[in-house]
């Protein structure tokens, strides 16, 4: 199966969601998680055409007694999957650390795609949430200073 975004992680998450849905219709499954997505979106998730958001996975996990990490755990040994999983776990750790600070979340989301910062964001596994917040604040201060200085 060719996946539009090429994400092995999306395929694995889709398989896990499909496993939980079992023989329940997509419409009933969606209703059971509060209609936070459509049946069409559920189809796209189950087939690996798109990744489910953490919000959707958390809601499904809450309904079926699975932690969010269950959707990311797998015994697949492919290196590309391990890299995707590592990157996703780092992203989740950062989002968890920043969850109480909307300004930092917005800043981080605007910076996460930058090539010069990607490696640093992947290296958070040993940092505490407070250390992650401090690191993002320092980067934000530097960015604010640089953007303020270039407008003069």
Count of DSSP strands:
0
Basic shape: elongated
| Main beta sheet | none
The secondary-structure class comes to mainly alpha
Stretches with pLDDT under 50, minimum 5 residues: 1-6
Give the H and E element order: HHHHHHHH
Report the portion of residues in β strands.
Answer: under 5%
Number of structurally distinct domains: 2
- Helix fraction, binned, reads 55-70%
Mean pLDDT figure:
82
> What separation lies between the terminal Cα atoms?
53 Å
Count of DSSP H/I helices: 8
Radius of gyration: 18 Å
Quick overview of this protein structure:
The protein has two domains: 64 residues, Orthogonal Bundle (434 Repressor (Amino-terminal Domain)); 72 residues.
Helix and strand layout, with pairings?
Blueprint lengths: L7 H14 L4 H7 L6 H8 L7 H11 L14 H20 L3 H10 L3 H8 L6 H22 L2
Q: What does this protein look like?
A:
- 66% of the residues lie in helices and 0% in strands.
- Helix 5 (79-98) crosses helix 8 (129-150).
- The termini are far apart.
- By secondary structure, the chain is mainly alpha-helical.
- It folds into 2 domains: 8-71, Orthogonal Bundle (434 Repressor (Amino-terminal Domain)), CATH 1.10.260; 79-150.
- The radius of gyration is 18 Å and the shape is elongated.
- It has helices spanning 8-21, 26-32, 39-46, 54-64, 79-98, 102-111, 115-122, 129-150.
- 19% of the residues are buried.
- The protein contains 8 helices and no strands.
